[in-house]
């Protein structure tokens, strides 16, 4: 479209699935490809925003004009995001952050033996929750990846994490969520309003999300 309606805005997008190391050769992660977050970064840059993309490992090329900060673990993502937070206007958290990490990372490759093995996990910080607690001028957009009770679970996340907008995807639907080029989402607002969007390409959905961010910044929706 060529419109530069995000000029004057600095935005922070997170993307990809964090990796939580078990030992030097193994990790725990999830099915995020990074496509949703990279699409958001690409469209924001095209619309004139200054864009920081805090990215967990993906196989995607960094979109033109986007400043990328590569991280691996949830803890590294947390630190990168917190450092940038005071200077940004909008945060969109499309990354799939691991909720747990191995309690210890073995220094050497773990040897197999005849018995089974138990891996002890501890909780990662909820980055978005921390952002919600420290929110000042920023507009905060979260995602919710659900496999059941989509709207109910998403409503809990929007209030608990103090969000301005939440994009909820039912990741069990064909063409939605992890890995696909398309997504199928509901958009939720803190006042309880819910909008159902049709199945869309992730780039097209990103444009819609930025449209809604701009409307919110203008005090409308
Ligand atoms: O990357 P793709 O293959 O394109 O797939 C896109 C996607 C399915 C990953 C994306 O659309 C999506 O839903 N991202 C959020 C996935 C997720 O972690 O959802 P959640 O419901 O577990 O978490 C809710 C929100 O809290 C998310 O914005 C998440 O970034 C954030 N969170 C979660 C845990 C944590 N420790 N810190 C966080 O900030």
From TrEMBL:
Pathway: Cofactor biosynthesis; coenzyme A biosynthesis; CoA from (R)-pantothenate: step 3/5; Cofactor biosynthesis; coenzyme A biosynthesis; CoA from (R)-pantothenate: step 2/5
Cofactor(s) demanded: Mg(2+); FMN
Positions in coiled-coil regions: none
Domain of life: Bacteria
EC number(s) on file: 4.1.1.36, 6.3.2.5
UniProt catalytic activity: N-[(R)-4-phosphopantothenoyl]-L-cysteine + H(+) = (R)-4'-phosphopantetheine + CO2; (R)-4'-phosphopantothenate + L-cysteine + CTP = N-[(R)-4-phosphopantothenoyl]-L-cysteine + CMP + diphosphate + H(+)
Record-annotated DNA/pantothenate metabolism flavoprotein C-terminal domain positions: 6-214
Keyword Lyase: yes
Assigned keywords, A-Z: Decarboxylase, Flavoprotein, FMN, Ligase, Lyase, Magnesium, Metal-binding, Multifunctional enzyme
A GO-annotated cellular component: phosphopantothenoylcysteine decarboxylase complex
MF GO annotations: FMN binding; metal ion binding; phosphopantothenate--cysteine ligase activity; phosphopantothenoylcysteine decarboxylase activity
Record text on cofactor binding: Binds 1 FMN per subunit.
Binding site for CTP: 99, 109, 143, 157, 161
UniProt record, GO biological process: coenzyme A biosynthetic process; pantothenate catabolic process
Region called Phosphopantothenate--cysteine ligase, residue ranges: 11-221
Described function: Catalyzes two steps in the biosynthesis of coenzyme A. In the first step cysteine is conjugated to 4'-phosphopantothenate to form 4-phosphopantothenoylcysteine, in the latter compound is decarboxylated to form 4'-phosphopantotheine.
Family: In the C-terminal section; belongs to the PPC synthetase family.
Protein name: Coenzyme A biosynthesis bifunctional protein CoaBC
